[in-house]
Design brief:
- By secondary structure, the protein is an alpha/beta fold.
- Helix content is 29%, strand content 21%.
- The chain folds into 2 domains: 16-67 and 158-227, 2-Layer Sandwich (Ribulose 1,5 Bisphosphate Carboxylase/Oxygenase); 73-155, 3-Layer(aba) Sandwich (Rossmann fold), CATH 3.40.50.790.
- It has helices spanning 4-12, 21-30, 79-88, 96-103, 126-129, 147-155, 180-196, and strands at 39-46, 58-62, 73-76, 92-94, 111-114, 158-162, 168-175, 207-214, 220-222.
- Strands 7-1-8-9 form a 4-stranded antiparallel beta sheet, with helices on one face. Strands 4-3-5 form a 3-stranded parallel beta sheet, with helices on both faces. Strands 2-6 form a two-stranded antiparallel ribbon.
- A hairpin with a 5-residue loop joins strand 8 (207-214) and strand 9.
- 33% of the residues are buried.
- The mean pLDDT is 92.
């Protein structure tokens, strides 16, 4: 059942048109139908084969204007790092008690940061954290001795991205309350980061498609030419 608001939103989007990033960033605000401050997501289809190790694109990027959401961060570390993590703004800090909680199914955090020394204890948590993309990883900067730096980055708008099985990157780049130019700048920061990660073995078109959408809103096709410098 499509609501009247959704029908009106759909009518404002030309499904056969590829909008410039500037146009899409303004339109996504205009067609929002939710009463809450919806997330705005960018879906980027890449010309890669995620089954090949060197084409399984993943990484992090610090969005200049953040995502509009403050992430809750758990730091798993030894006692000597706890004060540092707490001072940096971590929401939860500890080790054994949180490992026990996670084993029991607790995953009420957005990101987990761990020091390298505690990673051997993390192996048994893979079944719980893996499916939720919460397992700390050196490639995303969440396995580090600089826990303060990691927490500050995450609280300040640093996001992690990972290509899915279909070769698509899904990432939040702001909220509908953001000014269009902020959505543009955040989008370009993500796309530029992806372009730098183009594998040498990727043949043909690398940036195959870009789509922007808000929560529960219709997708807006973005002209890939408008996002390439």
């Amino acid at each position: 059942m499509i609501t009247k608001k959704r029908k009106l939103a759909n009518a404002k989007v030309d499904a056969n048109k590829a909008y410039t990033l500037v146009e899409a960033s303004a339109l996504v605000k205009d067609i929002n139908t939710t009463k809450f401050d919806s997330s705005v997501d960018l879906h980027v289809r890449l010309g890669v084969d995620p089954k090949k190790a060197d084409q399984a694109i993943r990484g992090t990027v610090s969005l200049p204007h953040g995502t509009g959401k403050t992430k809750s961060v758990l730091v798993l570390c030894t006692p000597d790092k706890e004060a540092e993590a707490t001072a940096a703004g971590a929401d939860f800090v500890g080790l054994d008690e949180y490992i026990a909680k996670i084993e029991g199914g607790w995953t009420d955090v957005d990101v987990i940061v761990a020091t390298p020394s505690v990673m051997p204890k993390m192996g048994k948590l893979g079944k719980v954290l893996g499916p939720r993309n919460l397992m700390p990883n050196p490639k995303t900067g969440t396995v580090t001795n600089d826990v303060a730096g990691a927490v500050k980055d995450l609280k300040g708008g640093k996001i992690a991205f990972k290509v899915d099985k279909a070769g698509i990157i899904h990432a939040s780049i702001g909220r509908v309350s953001f000014a269009p130019e902020k959505l543009v700048e955040n989008s370009m920061e993500l796309i530029n980061a992806l372009m730098k990660l183009k594998p040498a073995t990727s043949k043909g078109t690398y940036l195959k498609g870009v789509n922007m959408a808000s929560s529960m809103g219709p997708g807006i096709l973005v002209d890939t030419k408008s996002v390439q410098n």
